[in-house]
## 1
Amino acid sequence: MRIDIWSDVSCPWCYITKRTFELALSASGRSDAQVVLHPYQIDGEQPARPAPMLEWLAGKYGAERAAEMDKEVTAAGPRHGIAFRNATGFAVNTLDAHRLLWWAGRSHGRPVQSRLEELLFAAYFTQSADISDHGVLLSRVEEAGLDRGRAARLLASDEAVAEVRAEVREARALGITVVPRFEFAGGHVVEGPQEDPEVFLKALTGHAPVATGSQGESP
């Protein structure tokens, strides 16, 4: 079964929903799942420079809504083993992070890519790290068991820039505006924040209608 996922590492609900999905996948007992991760950038390639996360959100939505979003995701995090620290985090351009995920998936497969994705989410949301900084990215690459030197050469070049940008453009052309988005073989779609593995279990067994939630965002 092929499962296409659109996600952004600046989206806290993508982080939570990834864990929800993986619990369901493990519980389903399926050994034929082919997970294909696609990049998505909620804010495009902005901000141009790292910005305090809640200040960035306040500039988009207003201070009151930014505080509500932070409160919602911070309350949800512990249910999934995640301690969000958005107040000290940074909003950044996620292009380079997506380039590394693109490379990891194609050169090492989904398990390694998933491990790197977890490390990037944690850096962004729980460790107040700037994941546009190449040093930060390379430390996570190494922690994921990938070749630091190879990753450094990628980041120093234009490798995977065109491919990632093309996938983001394609997602928008397809009308995808909500992430996370999971599209299962057979046409089942699950999009938006999900905390209940049962939603995915139904999709994995082919018995689910389209399931939607509110749009994932940062935070």
## 2
Amino acid sequence: MSMSMTPEKISLIHPLWLRLTHWLNALAMLIMVTSGWRIYNASPLFNFRFMNELTLGGWLGGALQWHFAGMWLFGLNGLCYLLINLFSGRFKRQYWPLSPRQFFIDLWAALRGKLQHTDLRHYNMVQRAAYLFVIVVSILIVLSGLVVWKSVQFPLLRTLLGGYEMARYIHFFAMSALMGFVVIHLVMVALVPRTLLAMLRGR
């Protein structure tokens, strides 16, 4: 057994597959959100529109093509992420157990800027809750997106989500919640820059 391998294994924070799925997910979300804004502008749910300069696709048809491309990347990449997490045992190691009491302790520490990030290989309770929230919201985005895209082909799913129009609202609010997480995530990265380095190089 080579002792020279031990420090390298210990220092690894994020494996290659995790970094790849993370950045592919970021790309997919960028494509889906910006093209989704253009699609929303064509049939808005509320009394506001997104600036066309911030949207992708140029027109409705182009935006739909970009959205479908992002959808496949988002869905397949997310499925790979979930399956690898489940079968490797990482899901249980990183996200379990959950403690409501520890969550509020960590949340209070985070709000005061005193939450420790000494070992990036282990998630604190706020991170566990946030990442599990993202997984649930992402699944909801995919399911509601299927109803909006192929409403006739998924009648049971359409019924479970309250109909086509309700699925549109669910899709919008789920994506908005995911964008809220992204904003908070970027703020945390700015406060703890070494988390970005770890996601880029694995250490």
## 3
Amino acid sequence: MRRDVTEIRSFYASPLGQTAARLIGARLSDAWGPLTGQDVLGLGYAAPWLEEMREARRAVCAMPHGQGAEAWPRAARCRTTLVEDEALPFGTGVFDRIVAVHAIEEATDPLALVRELGRVLKPSGRLVLVVAGRGGLWARSENTPFGDGRPYSRSQLERLVRDAELEPFAWSQALFGPPWERLAGAADLMEAWGSRLVPGAAGVVLLEAVKVQLALRSRPVAAPARARRSKGLTPQPAGLTPTRRTDVEIPDERD
């Protein structure tokens, strides 16, 4: 059973929730940059991050039926819709970018949900799953929404998106500090050092997947490589770090 939307909203209104939203938002911003002219979908409870994507051509906030929905944005025409995980009310290939937060951990069928996200994603579109990390303290705390449902490791997320016929493209981590409000003021320092000293203790794993077409080959496909960090993006709060497989063709969005 999903956590009620009012409880999630209360968490993100707290100092700890605001800090978590800011740190995760920094990773998304690094990954995607400006979204001018893009169509964006936020699934789960994505309102705190969609607020920072106002330059997008269109942004829709989809909230799962078991969670409940709230109006977003508050000061403009409502763009929130209540959805079923396995039957999103959108056409095929509608969105350029999708961010799913507090979505797959409590889904009855995570694979079916990710496949639905892939269906509504445009060719060469990108999906970011923001999921509680299996090795972090946040997954063990029932005082935050990240303590609900099933946490994931990076390798588990990679398998999930591949099973959904998407390609893992980049990954990052966030929330290295413990989920204690009294330490929220030191979150930036713990974020900077945590990724270097205890990389397995991240509270959140972010995995970006891209919708690609497999290149035609006359030889067997090599074993898929894991998404990994690139040295060029490793310094201070790093965004999602890209990797590309040699056996897939990733369309150039400029074409």
